[in-house]
Task: structure prediction
Amino acid sequence: MANCPFHSERTPSFTVFPDTQNYYCFGCHAGGDVITFLRASQNLEYVDAVRMLADMTGVPFPEDTGERESGRIRKQLLEANKEAARFFNKVLMSEQGKAGLEYLMGKRRLTAQTITKFGLGFAPDSWDMLTRHLMKMGFSKEILKLAGLCRTGKNGKEYDMFRNRVMFPIIDTSGNVVAFGGRVMDGSEPKYLNTSETPVFKKSKTLFALNFARTSCKERMILAEGYMDVIALHQAGFTYAVATLGTAMTPDHARIMGNYTKQLIVAYDSDKAGKAATQRAIEHLNEAGVAVKILRITGGKDPDEFIKTYGADKFKLLLDKSEDHAEYRLDEILAKYDISETAQKVACAKEMASLIATFANGVEREIYTVKAAELCGVDKTVLTSEIARLYKQKAGAQRKKRFSEDSAALTGISDKVNTEKYGNLGQARAEEYLLTHMLRRPEDIEKISKAIAPDEFVTEFDRRVYIAIQQMYAEHGEIDIAVLGESFTVAEISRISEFMRRELYDDEQRAVRDCIEKLKNAHSKVKKPEIEQMQDDELLDIIGKIGKAKQNRNT
Result:
């Protein structure tokens, strides 16, 4: 068991079952096999996940068979990005990239080794130089546009997305170039331009330099604000630094970092925007259960400037003295108020109480209640009482929220996998039980298949699962969720994994019969307007089915 990598939790509910070689989270209901896990965690298509596993285990992968269109497109996008990165790097080392090289090696003091390590480059100040280069290599306009490397202008001609910019390739943990960030050279806006989301790039799930940091960040990781901060930190020996990509931290970012490190040190800029971003980051990291510290940078606005001014050794001392996130937040609250005035002292104490009431750990609440009382000069007993009231209020709100979510799940209102469940709740539950029984008792698949046809299932998703189970069992004599994964999305496989974990009723066979009867009864009901439009032979067919259903009930 472990903390789930797919949702925020403090108590482990993610479980791996060695006997069945799959996983299931009892909190968020994510589930599947090793292929599903790779698809969900690495944002891969089915074929690409299988290929990655084949590469890891040395198993030959049949490239010429079974590859779906989505896998082919993904492969082309990654190839186009790789060739674009090579192009940008080559331009950087040419006369056309002189301005970019001067910026990186002169102003930013990067070494040639660092430039090579990060694959930095330069987009020439040209209308379509990259597009023409890649099209000569055989890439289509459609692939280049899908990759975010070019756009179509009003005149119908393609133009490069990145022009006159220092280029930062964004590389995933598998070593694929998935996107780019570009810093402009002429002072125009936007200063930084990032690739929009593509089939191979999701901003909310990607961290710059994680491909390097993942091997050295087990004990701690630094979260910096931008590309240059991260690169400067790596060059100075702090190879466990990462950054988000032109966007605020998301819950997914927090969970990903929590999977790699024990402690996260936030090293954002010390300006107003940086402080606001730090507060948001703390909230997401706390929800993900990640231990958080805050780096207060003095004598420089950001890590890059500090290292240039004072050196790496001084920065390490600063890093080792990083402040606990709670103390940082209490200090930030205190700085907002003049507690020599009674009204402001009250407001300060209330805000501190509201913060401490969000701490799940009782020991933390006790320790920081004492700290807050000292900071704002109020009686600890009064503050303790207020925090207890707010904590109880918060707990009640959370219970109501969970009740609403559970109610929505039970009625199918919020079901995004089986969107037809709401309004067909009884039939959907009958379908789900049949599928659960077939997955848990494969020896009964043939008997159930003879008793009920796929078109008697009410919901399209359950019907697809039913057909897939029938076909797989007929062909292989067993059910393998790894093979099922080729025909279903990650979310759908998670739902099928949930079926596999559900309990069967004590009288299993009677439950199966009842579910089949429920679905047949629902299927035999025909609305009056439909009857009026039927031909005679269709009506006779319906009457025959009703007669058979009654006969089956009597027997």
Q: What stands out?
A: The chain has a mean pLDDT of 87. Residues 99 and 211 are 28 Å apart (CA to CA). The radius of gyration is 29 Å.
